[in-house]
Amino acid sequence: MNTEIYLGLGGNLGDPPSTFKQTLKKIGHFAKVTKVSKLYKSKPYGFADQPDFYNAAAQLTSDLSPLDLLAQLQEVEKQLGKKVVRENGPRVIDIDLLVFGDEVLDLPELTLPHPGILERDFVLRPLTDLNPMLTHPAWNGQSLQSAMDRLKECFLIEVAKIVKI
Questions:
Q1: Residue 150's pLDDT band (cuts 50, 70, 90)
Q2: What is the mean pLDDT of the chain?
Q3: Taking Cα atoms as reference points, which of 41, 58, 53 lies closest to residue 7?
Q4: CB of 41 within 8 A of CB of 125?
Q5: What's the pTM value of the predicted model, to 2 decimals?
Q6: CA separation (Å) from 153 to 66, 83, 127, 142, 148?
Q7: ∠ CA 157-112-61, rounded to 5°
Q8: Phi and psi for 78 in degrees, rounded to 5?
Q9: Is residue 165 over pLDDT 60?
Q10: How far apart are CA 24 and CA 163, in angstroms?
Q11: Per residue in 63-99, is it b (16+ CB within 10 Å) or e — as a string?
Q12: What is the 3-state secondary structure (H, E, C) of the chain?
């Protein structure tokens, strides 16, 4: 089936660029990473009293189902030491399954596409690096680029490339 999938990567503890490289390497064991965005730095979302976050996105393909992929991604987070102290709090790694082909799911453990993609610059900007014209049936014909153009301000600071594919 080889579905086109988009992930968001975030982290603000330890060495996030290095952690993202490790994350992508581990994901490569069960999916094919085809593209990686630039690395960005952003202010925390929700809980402000913590270090700035690093954010990136990755495009991949996989034959796994959405829930099987989610389970694999959660295992990678666990291997890399993710501990959730509080919602939107500091963390070593956060891997969000953002888009899984044209899938629309609303389950307790997974919502697809991920809510807030079109409103959050720290998700939208890295995704736009990968595929600015990406649309999804749930977005009513809106592309990532048109959502990016709609944002009043973008507070992300481009830092670097994470890895070359």
A1: confident
A2: 90
A3: 58
A4: no
A5: 0.91
A6: 32, 31, 16, 18, 9
A7: 75
A8: -60, -45
A9: no
A10: 9
A11: ebebeebbebbeebbeebebeeeeeeebbbbbbbbbb
A12: CCEEEEEEEEECCCCHHHHHHHHHHHHCCCCEEEEECEEEEECCCCCCCCCCEEEEEEEEEECCCHHHHHHHHHHHHHHCCCCCCCCCCCCCCEEEEEEECCCCEECCCCEECCCCCCCCHHHHHHHHHHCCCCECHHHCCCEHHHHHHHCCCCCCEEEEECCCC
Six-digit token pair at 126? 């890295």
Q: Which of 35, 10, 42 is nearest to 131 (CA)?
A: 35
pLDDT in tens, 78-129: 999 887 766 666 889 999 999 999 999 999 999 999 998 998 889 999 999 9
Token readout for 25 is 């390497």
